[in-house]
Amino acid sequence: NNLFSQDFFQKIYSLDFKDEGWGVEVMPNGDIVTAGSMGSAGAEKIWVQRLNNKGEVLWSKTFEETNDVIAHDIQRTADGGLLITYNVGPGLGFFGTGKWMKISGNGDLIWAQTSSANFIMDKAMPLGAGGYLLTGFDVPASFIDALVLKINDDGEIPWGTTFGDAGDDAVKSCWEDQQGFLYCAGYSGDINLGQDGLLAKLTPTGGVLWARRYGTVSPDQFGKVKRFSGDSTLLLAGYSSGF
Questions:
Q1: Which of 147, 181, 234, 237 has the most CB atoms lying inside 10 A of its own CB?
Q2: What is the pTM of this model?
Q3: Nearest-5° Cα angle at 118, 60 to 44
């Protein structure tokens, strides 16, 4: 949409019974790339399509593995490629397994990576010093933990951090300041099934400096964190449940 909310174009794209778009990226020439999934429930594939600036399809490709595969985010890379975070499962556990891959601007697979841990991937963001930050959660033996993972341009992991209380925790969004410190927002649960919005500050190498919870008596969650003003004030958005 342009600034006055007048439709420039509105299009619907469909390949199968269930088609979803979870991530979108705009290329330097104005092309639009979407990533998500297509197929019937229980047999989904990654679906990536590249559109021109009028929404017309330039190419449309699918990627699949042995179980349901759903892409959750897409980021363009400096060399014109595209980084995609996705989850496969739940064949390897109740939550499935998180992975990431790089494709060319023409949709050809360059590489695909995974971790030996049972990570679930959500979002990806480029880092100022190079590489990318992946967020989501880890699934250990009991409660899930918030996850922040750095990968380099080849998809390898220089470091990863998990943290949280005695409940379910996850990171939904991060913001990086000029010094490389990371402010990560999401949710944090406790053993009594309460849940608050979570904000944590991490060092450029993933060390947790502090983590704080904000919320009400009802379940709360942050979905996004951004810089709000020049004095390092942050703006957090999310929701609070209740009646």
A1: 147
A2: 0.88
A3: 30
Structure tokens at 125: 């963001």
CB-based contacts of 243, cutoff 8 Å, min separation 6:
none
User: pLDDT tens per residue, the chain (243 residues)?
Assistant: 555 666 678 899 998 888 999 999 999 999 999 999 998 877 899 999 999 999 999 999 999 877 689 999 999 999 999 999 998 875 434 567 889 999 999 999 999 998 767 788 889 999 999 999 999 998 876 788 999 999 999 999 999 999 988 889 999 999 999 999 999 999 999 877 789 999 999 999 999 999 999 988 889 999 999 999 876 799 999 999 876
